[in-house]
Amino acid sequence: MTDELTTAKWFKSSRSGGSRNCVEVAFLAKGLVGVRDSKNSSGPALIFTSDEWAAFTHAAARNLA
Residues in domain DUF397 (predicted)? Predict the structure, then answer.
């Protein structure tokens, strides 16, 4: 998994406004999703299943409404 995280295509939200104070996300093999701190790109990353990621983004969107 470490190799996959190193070569992953990480991205930030278009709403980050170029700030370094945000998270980056990468879609990985087997439906997994990586999340890391944009200020520490070589640091640890959290890995979520697609179901966990869907639950998180759904809850976050619901709380913004």
Answer: 8-60
Q: Which domain holds residue 56?
A: 2-64
Consecutive H or E run containing 62:
helix 50-64
Q: Which tens digits make up the pLDDT trace of 47-65?
A: 999 999 999 999 988 987 6
Q: CB-based contacts of 45: which residues, under 8 Å, 6+ apart?
A: 5, 26, 34, 35, 36
Tell me the whole-structure pTM to 2 decimals: 0.81
What residues contact 32, with CB distance under 8 A and at least 6 apart? Answer: 47, 48, 49, 50
